[in-house]
Amino acid sequence: MGHGVDGRTTPAAHLDADAAATIAATLQALATPSRLMILTRLRQGPCPVGELAEAVGMEQSAVSHQLRLLRALGLVTGSRQGRRIVYSLYDTHVAQLLDEAVYHIEHLRLGARDLPDMAENDETGRAGAGERAGAGKGAGGTGRRPLGH
């Protein structure tokens, strides 16, 4: 999915206290429904504050307040276009975080589970649940669809 850091495709096995605190702050920002609505709207494309407020059904001042926090956490960015600022997700990692959260909730709702690769075949050689079900993957695909589609 992602490109990793320093050539890694999986996260580091150990977090230091500073990294854990930063990740916790980011996850706390994602734990607020209004912020999630703002981020998922921005997942569809850049948007100025007024349009964003209308799209998520909030007052413009409240959206501006949430955007300041999201910007400080590196989840959104703003670019000036004339007299207005157009906001967008900071990068594809933010979109991936949102997508993974949505996929997880969909899996919970459906009672589905992704099994680790090692669990695909048990000791008897039978196919694991993900393999039996086709794991929702097409030819080379992930079986996932973009948020909002």
Task: Please give the structural blueprint.
Layout: H1 17-30, H2 33-43, E1 47-48, H3 49-56, H4 60-72, E2 76-81, E3 84-89, H5 92-110, H6 129-132
Notable characteristics:
46% helix, mainly alpha, 3-stranded antiparallel beta sheet, 6 helices, disordered C terminus, 149 residues, 3 strands
Main sheet specs: 3 strands, antiparallel
Q: Strand order within the widest sheet? A: 1-3-2
The span between the termini is 19 Å
Rg to the nearest angstrom?
A: 19 Å
Q: Give the low-pLDDT segments.
A: 118-149
Overall mean pLDDT stands at 79
Categorize the overall geometry.
globular
Proportion of residues in β-strands: 5-15%
Q: What class would the helix/strand composition place it in?
A: mainly alpha
Number of strands: 3
Query: What string gives the helices and strands in order?
Result: HHEHHEEHH
Helical segment tally?
6
Helix content class: 40-55%
Mind explaining what this structure looks like?
- By secondary structure, this protein is mostly helical.
- It has six helices and three strands, in the order ααβααββαα.
- The chain is globular, with a radius of gyration of 19 Å.
- The model is unreliable at 118-149 (pLDDT under 50).
Summarize the structure.
The chain has 149 residues and is mainly α. The protein has 6 helices and 3 strands, in the order H-H-E-H-H-E-E-H-H. The longest helix is centred in the last third of the chain and has 19 residues, at 92-110.
